[in-house]
Amino acid sequence: MPASSQKNKKAIGDAPSCDVPLVHLENVRQVQPEVLETTKAQRMAEFFSVLSDPHRLKLLSALAQQELCVCDLAAAVKMGESAVSHQLRVLKSHRLVKYRRQGRNVFYSLADGHVASIYRDVADHLDE
Known about the structure:
Elements: H1 3-14, H2 25-31, H3 38-50, H4 54-63, E1 68-69, H5 70-77, H6 81-93, E2 97-102, E3 105-110, H7 113-127
Antiparallel strand pairs: 1-3, 2-3
Helix pairs in contact: 5-6
């Protein structure tokens, strides 16, 4: 066996794998109906990419505590109001935050309980 093949085989051998290359059809049949369709997987990947920005996560962490106006939100996360507004537009376009107007003020909050759960579940997971 050439040296390069031995090297590749060793690298692959370090990773967990099946001892015998045998497909367990019953397992495949059980799981296959639950595997994401490509379109939904792409939408979910886009959703998670929105959450991959630390500035957006800081905004979500503040909004997980309470509804805030842009000025208060900017002060809480130590960012400029313009930067906060830009990030809020991104979060709003992906339905992660919502807003309401009260006179001349605009208040932002998490869009719904799902967003709050996602935020808290990930935060809790990382704290374990």
